[in-house]
Protein 1
Amino acid sequence: MSVLGVNKKAGFDYKILETYEAGLILSGPEVKSVKGGHISLKESYIDVLTLKQNHPELYLIKAHVSPYRPAGKMDDYNPTRPRKLLLHQNEIIHLMGKKQQAGLTLIPLKIYTKNSFIKLEFALAQGRKKYDKREVIKKREVERGLRILTKKR
């Protein structure tokens, strides 16, 4: 397993409740670009869309995949297009029920390869307020100070 992209701000901006894994549908040049590490999960999120016959589907929204340069110029390429996630229908329905609780959202954490497949790890998360973020910073600094003090002894 090799990690191709990470959403570094996710753990700071959100309180992670549960994590999930899903496959990702990409075009050929996008696969090569993602495997080259040219993906940004910053400001991206996962949303439930119902497009065909009332079957809900999960999509990765606002993830930026840079065009694969050796593929040549692609005129109609949209780097932030919605990309479909591959999950079982019962998992999607379970996530829809969880998401409808107040203040919960689905955010991508990292994208990686697993047995030559590209997988996305995402989380059911709750947004943090500004004062919660300050507490996290304060707690991290205190723990760091304690580690330094125990190392000196």
Protein 2
Amino acid sequence: MPGYVLHQGATVLCLHGGQAQATVPNPRVKVAGQLTVQQPNPWVISACPFAPGSPMPCVTAQWTTAATRVTSGGMPLLLQDSQATCAPNGTGVNIIVTQLRVRAQ
């Protein structure tokens, strides 16, 4: 099922509430006036409060799923339903807000 294409200004949080940001935006494709993001590039996470009893806050997120039919520069674009794993603790992310005009599969 198609999902909305993720962009650089999307609101993405680790499961503890830390803010995730794209490290390498895709300069070739824009949606809603903002650059899209591709799967292989990690995101950095700032201000992760981490869960009580866990000594390791989230630092980066690596995307494990992305579009299967839409690529840019040979790399899949991230979608609103894409999933990521945070390092060093292995938790996931929540995509809270993204643009709502362009879909991909």
Protein 3
Amino acid sequence: MGEPAGIGPEVALAAWHALGGKIGKRTLKLVGDAKALRDIPANVLIESHALGAPVRMGHADPANTHAVVDAIDTAVAMAMQGAAGAVVTAPIHKASLLQGGFEFAGHTEYLQKITEAPRAVMMLAGGGLRVVPLTIHIAVSEVPRRISEVAIVETGEIILRALKRDFGIAKPRLAISGLNPHAGEDGEIGREERDIIAPAVKALSAEGIVLGPLPADTMFHEEARARYDAALCMYHDQALIPLKTLAFWDGVNVTLGLPIVRTSPDHGTALDIAGKGKADPRSMIAAIKMAADIADARFGK
């Protein structure tokens, strides 16, 4: 369901209709409150906790935090129990949830907690590009302190395993960016590349083809992208700006490292257009298709 006052329910319903209620041999179910997910057959809706306040389109209400979170919990529990092949989440409104008592920066961090995963990794895919930010929803000023060789190695291992298992790439290639301009200019513009990132690249080379640290400003043009299957970047915008430039309307968020399959559209709640019939469901449709493809790769069609 996602944020009921945003475009999540709208694009979920539009995707359900566009796909005819199924993807391959898998049926599509919608999880949430019936007042948010209107006009669908009763056997399609899996009801979770009821909304705490009436929905005013375009106005996220912290009183609905419990309902938003319970919809996530319900869907994840089904996937953990084997009753669902994958979970596709609609966007949540983080500020509203935080005001309502939610203690996590976003879906990724919460899914790691409730599935008890050692590390959850956010991958964005679309436009022939897959990117992973090492650090996610933190201030840019905090990024250098959060980068470590262990974090890069653990994240890189998860990416390489996912490329093999979930994306069917037998010999995956991973590119790893630097943090500083020109990847540090051999220590002249920062030492993170020499002291942290380069040793991590060396350690990961035993797991597959790993390139880096690479200057972030030259690793996303067409010829450069042909050299790797996924890119690990040091912070949020370093990864998401190229992805959203190439695939703004059909990018997909995939959470790696979980015991379940989870994807989501790569956009927010868009409160400014919610309820106006302007929401584009392409990213949600792409997220559903990718979730089905990964589920087929893991569990068989």
